[in-house]
Design brief:
Blueprint lengths: L1 H16 L2 H26 L6 H9 L3 H10 L3 H6 L3 H26 L5 H30 L4 H23 L10 H33 L1 H29 L6 H11 L1
Helix pairs in contact: 1-10, 2-6, 2-7, 2-10, 3-4, 4-9, 4-10, 6-7, 6-10, 7-8, 8-9, 9-10
Length: 264
């Protein structure tokens, strides 16, 4: 019992140390301008005939004013395809890179590592391209999984893929300064936590979105989405810090601090 209390204290201390609210606010804003456009673009280009708004309505089981506002907020796939430009792709790439750097700082703080500056930019670029390939592959896969007869396949395959993605992500962004096997806990914990968060979201999001849409119109639906992204960012930060503590990051601080110096 004492060991569990000590572990919980260490997790809470590490979570507070990374300034979660400030980090979540920065990450959620970058997610809004990077993740959502990327999802819209890849789903439109790689096969989905339904709009991103319809997908959100289905995902959160939205009805009434909330569903109407979300559908109006996002363009149809044909409109997205017709609006693609080189400048738009360039701006989106910069937004994704900025999101990657914000995520990188979260993992560095979770593991108590120093910034790697120029090399950090290179690692963020590597992750950005990996992120783009993942989204290109996952969009048609999700469409197939929704039609799958096997409930286990629909549930467990995304969890396995998510665990791999969320273990590889910090490995790339941290520049290999943390061994891959030590990041397995972070990967599994993040995938499970985000899955639980998605399930809980289906309970509270319909009421939040409908209320905000009735009060404020389309901007209210935007507030609801941003709030959801902020909560998701907090979950992600909590998973990162908890995974780091479970892997002993708070007990090998001197080694972590020496690694960047040795690498330089």
């Amino acid at each position: 019992m004492a060991d569990l209390v000590a572990l919980a204290r260490r997790i809470i201390e590490r979570f507070i140390m990374v300034e979660p609210l400030e980090r979540a606010l920065a990450l959620s804003s970058k997610l809004f301008i990077a993740l959502i456009p990327t999802t819209i673009l890849t789903s439109s280009v790689f096969g989905a005939d339904t709009s991103f708004g319809d997908a959100l309505v289905e995902r959160f089981s939205l009805t009434g004013a909330g569903a109407d506002a979300v559908r109006q907020l996002f363009a149809s796939p044909d409109q997205v395809r017709g609006g693609i430009s080189a400048l738009g792709i360039l701006i989106l790439a910069y937004a994704v890179l900025s999101m990657a750097q914000a995520l990188q700082r979260i993992y560095e703080d979770a593991w108590g590592l120093a910034r790697i500056r120029a090399r950090g930019m290179f690692r963020a670029l590597i992750w950005m391209f990996s992120f783009a390939l993942y989204f290109a592959a996952i969009s048609p896969l999700r469409a197939q999984l929704r039609q799958a007869d096997s409930r286990a396949l629909r549930i467990y395959l995304p969890l396995v893929l998510g665990s791999v993605i969320w273990a590889v992500t910090p490995y790339i962004l941290l520049g290999g300064r943390v061994r891959s096997r030590r990041l397995l806990a972070t990967g599994v914990l993040t995938a499970v936590s985000l899955t639980v968060f998605a399930v809980v979201s289906r309970v509270y999001m319909p009421a939040v979105m409908s209320t905000d849409a009735r009060r404020y119109g389309l901007i209210g639906a935007t507030f609801g989405i941003v709030s959801w992204l902020f909560a998701a960012a907090v979950v992600l930060i909590g998973s990162a810090t908890t995974g780091a503590v479970l892997a002993g990051a708070d007990q090998d601080q001197p080694a972590a601090e020496a690694a960047p110096a040795a690498a330089g």
